[in-house]
Please model this.
Amino acid sequence: MGDSPGIESNICASIPVSNRILAGDDYSKCWRGIANESQRRSAAALFLVAICLAVSACHQGTKQNVQPKISFTQVPEWNTGDREEGDVIEGTVAGARRGQQMVLYSKCGGLWWLQPLLSSPFTSIFPDNAWRNEVHLGTQYAALLVDSSYHPAPVLRELPGRGGVVAQVAIARGQEKSSSFFIDFSSFRWRVRFKPSDRGGTSNPYNPDNVYTDEAGALHLQIVKRGQRWTCSEVKLTRSLGYGTYSFTVEDTSRLDPSVVLEMYTWDYSTDEQNNREFDINISRWGDPDNKNSEFTLQPTFLPSNVSRFNVPAGRLKYTMIWEPARLTMTTSRADAPPGAPAISKRVFTWEVPTPGSESVRMAFFVYWQGKRGVSGLRDRAEIVVDRFEFLP
Model:
């Protein structure tokens, strides 16, 4: 009967589009049956579309079947003791959808306890897919990837399984030894920073070797050049103390380089609400020798009423923060001043004073970098000595 184009076209039409890329012999017949160049071009275009649709369908099917994956990069120690002690937990998540968050639990006494607080039950996922927070110590730690509609229970006997609004669940046993660094000072346990921080106008590196206590029990914080970079110091309490009186007795700071900062402050790792519950006592001239050398601040500092700058004299001084409901009082006084002696400086804040959460008090000693070029006038290593930290509830 010969090679009739009409007959061969009917053969082509009988092959499903999804199968044509696999029906090689039959499709070759179809191609040979197309008589003119115009028809061949049209057929080639349809052939490419079919391939694209098939590949796209396969890709979408694969994507839908991929389960999220939670990984831990830092896990606190295994501990059955003081539930008030805390440490950093962090990790990454792959395959999270927009709007999903992490929910963390610590296991203690056979129960899973929501972390870090009932009022702060969610942990955000950063743009680089990392997550981190602080949790109370336990024997095991759990991370749940959940939808925004999930309502975490404060205490659980068993963790929920994967499904519904719970996209994934991961559990890690507490480490035999934490990867954090700790130091004991003034009868409190402090975690020593070892990761960079952007305080000071740039990403300052921190080194635990810059922190130590001497034979008298005083805490030393140093800024030391290691390689080609200045490395800084920071410590934070491993527990939240809440309302009360915080005081720091510090040796003479009058000769500090203008480009360094000693900061005594509170910070809540778990939330950005209430400006991370931050208020500060800063000892620094912020790079300008003509500036006053100290300040009291309550965040946010773009409000002029939240910053009080002053000069402190040479000698051993005591810095105090009295945190009460709707009231924050900061003072500087001589460390050996008799009771009732007037303060060197004092400021009372009564507007938008934060309420307690999971904040902790911290001390940081770092380099201040000026301008967009990140210029620092620091030439020599620096050191401060904190003789004592006290807290009265």
